[in-house]
Amino acid sequence: MEAFLSFFANIDWFEIWLATGDTLMMLGGSLLFTIVLGLPLGVLLFLCSPRQLFEQKAVYACLSLMVNILRSLPFIILLIVMIPFTVLITGTSLGVAGAIPPLVVGATPFFARLVETALREVDRGIIEATQAMGASTRQIITSALLPEARPGIFAAITVTAITLVSYTAMAGVVGAGGLGDLAIRFGYQRFQTDVMIVTVVLLLILVQILQTVGDRLVVHFSRK
To answer: What is the domain count for the chain?
Structure first.
């Protein structure tokens, strides 16, 4: 028992608690904005793609290029490149507030692509039947497309949330706070292995919780 306690001698559990709270706030805030921005973008990508309701090759090509560019940037580089913009809109590039803008910019195109893929899996016959009943475009989207794609959208949210957990850990490099920052400052720079182990275990638990909740939502809505 004493050997166990001595191994974790460097652990400040209050600081671990605060860092966990920062990680959850970064995850919650960035995931919310990612869904708000990424869901309409994914729907627009789908509608403008070839052989869909509003086939617009030029618009789709421009949107697709923008999404691909943002997706191709390594997140650590995006963090640094966005510092001036982050300071402009939040007043700081540090802490939770400084981490959310790059997290949203990094995750939104990723989520939009997943939404587009989920919408492509909807049976085209459902869309055609809704059109035949005289439904407007808005009704087609809200009453046919999105409800039918709901399991895929929840799966996309789950994958995006887990990706954001890894992004929040990387955000610690630029002083964003959270478990990643704690792991870097104490676990890596000060060689405190116990801090590194605790932060990694907490991140693994968080990912497992997100995956479990996401899987249950997908199963639930797949039965509808």
So the answer is: 1
Are 38 and 117 in contact, with CB atoms under 8 Å apart? no
CA-wise closest residue to 27 among 140, 157, 189? 157
Q: What is the pLDDT of residues 13-31, one digit of tens each?
A: 788 898 899 999 999 999 9
3-class secondary structure, 82: coil
CA 201 – CA 69 distance, rounded (Å): 33
pLDDT digits (tens, 9 = 90+) for 82-137: 888 888 888 877 788 888 999 999 999 999 999 999 998 888 777 778 877 877 77
The two three-digit tokens of residue 14, written as one number = 């209050």
- Helix H or strand E segment including 122: none
Q: Identity (one letter) of the amino acid at 134?
A: G
Tally of CB atoms within 10 A around 202 = 17
Q: Which structural domain, as residue segments, surrounds residue 181?
A: 2-222
Ordered DSSP codes for 176-206: --HHHHHIIIIIISS--HHHHHHHHHHHHHH
pTM over 0.85: yes
What CATH number does residue 169 fall under? 1.10.3720.10
| Tokens encoding 104 | 């949203």
